[in-house]
Design a protein that fits this description.
The chain is an all-alpha fold. The protein has one domain.
Amino acid sequence: MEKNNKQSKSIWGKWWTPIRKWFYPAWLIYEVTIRFYDYALAVHSYFMEQQNYLGEIGALILAVFCSVVTFIICTFYLTIPACFILYKFFKEDNLTKVRFEERIKRFF
């Protein structure tokens, strides 16, 4: 019974255990930052194509403002909560009290 209560060791070894709680959130931040940057560039390009309707200065101001707002919103509402959840998931031994968690953590 006590054997089932202990978290399995990682297949990567003991050295991986303290690193993983920082690695996965950092990797997530990097990946989604690249994606959100692409979203911001797409928003910027869209507004720059509307120069005929908004004027050159108006389109530039609106493009920069909306692309920055897009990046900030995506980062604040998606990245920060997901990184916090990943950090808590790997920091606690058995956060959800489910055996599946013990099995999946062994591979990560």
